[in-house]
Design goal:
Radius of gyration: 12 Å
Number of strands: 0
Number of helices: 2
Order of helices and strands: HH
Largest sheet: none
Distance between the termini: 25 Å
Length: 67
Amino acid sequence: MAGKPQAPRAAGSACARNPIPIIYPCHRVVRSGGGLGNYGGGSDHHPTSAANLDRKRYLIELEQRFA
């Protein structure tokens, strides 16, 4: 997203409003340092909760196995 300083905010906002996260893969969004960022995952848990980050990690690993 080089040269577009507002792009990360736009991506985060789009992911936060994503009604079907398994179809529109917001779980693939990572932080600039390469670590896992917040993930709502369509649940009522807080985006930084351990449950949501575990769900994000699981989806990424699942995709890697079938890629």
